[in-house]
Specification:
Distance between the termini: 40 Å
Radius of gyration: 24 Å
Number of domains: 3
Number of strands: 22
Shape: elongated
CATH architecture of the largest domain: Roll
Helix content: under 10%
CATH class of the largest domain: Alpha Beta
Number of helices: 0
Largest sheet: 7 strands, mixed
């Protein structure tokens, strides 16, 4: 059971027992069970507070979870009317997962659960492995580091890994290249060797 108190901003058109009509209601509390959802709502016309319960139709969905070079397959139930999209974060067995791909009869960016066959997702509950290519006058060092998913790489900073000091030239993501980005969105970081300095971000302990 998952109980949530809302800020009252969610509004639904519901049958009010006091007004005897369908009126706008604010959701005050939401309690999710395995196969139903219970709402505490307040009618915006008469201020009557009452409870409603809605049965949920569930569907088994295959989830392929990526953790670095390894993957795990799980099967979980989702309400058929729920809409999932690439980029959504879902929690499965207390692990936060970001959806990276959705398959119905083809690969899509968003879909109702009733049409979904398989979801691919990456774990956000483990550190992000980021590959860094450091150019040193024609020679390239390739190093992987583990950092929190919300760690920010910034081309305005100087970084150190062991004896190497470098500055970021470019950050590659799925949506293009950037000068500053959070780790969870990064495909690879490209940098250039620079002179040692007293002010730097040390990633030595994060290197694999």
């Amino acid at each position: 059971m998952d109980e949530t108190k809302t800020d009252g901003s969610e509004v639904l058109m519901l049958d009010c027992p006091n007004c005897g009509d369908i009126t706008p209601h604010k959701i005050l509390k939401k309690v999710e069970y395995k196969k139903s959802i219970k709402l505490t709502v307040r009618c915006l016309q008469c201020n009557n507070v009452h409870n409603i319960e809605k049965k949920l139709k569930l569907k088994d969905i295959n989830i392929i979870i990526s953790r670095y070079a390894h993957s795990e397959k799980k099967t979980k139930q989702f309400p058929t009317e729920e809409v999932l999209s690439v980029g959504d974060v879902i929690n499965i067995d207390n692990e936060d997962l970001e959806i990276t791909s959705i398959e119905t009869t083809k690969r899509v960016n968003t879909s109702k659960v009733e049409d979904i066959k398989t979801i691919w997702a990456k774990s956000l509950s483990i550190p992000k492995k980021v590959g860094i290519s450091i150019n040193d006058r024609g020679k390239t060092y390739s190093i992987d580091v583990l950092v929190p998913n919300d760690y920010v790489f910034d081309n305005e900073k100087i970084y150190r890994i062991g004896k190497l000091f470098f500055k970021i030239r470019m950050i590659k993501t799925e949506k293009g290249t950037f000068k500053r980005e959070v780790a969870k969105k990064i495909k690879r970081v490209y940098g250039d060797i620079t002179r040692p300095t007293k002010k730097y971000e040390d990633l030595t302990k994060n290197a694999l």
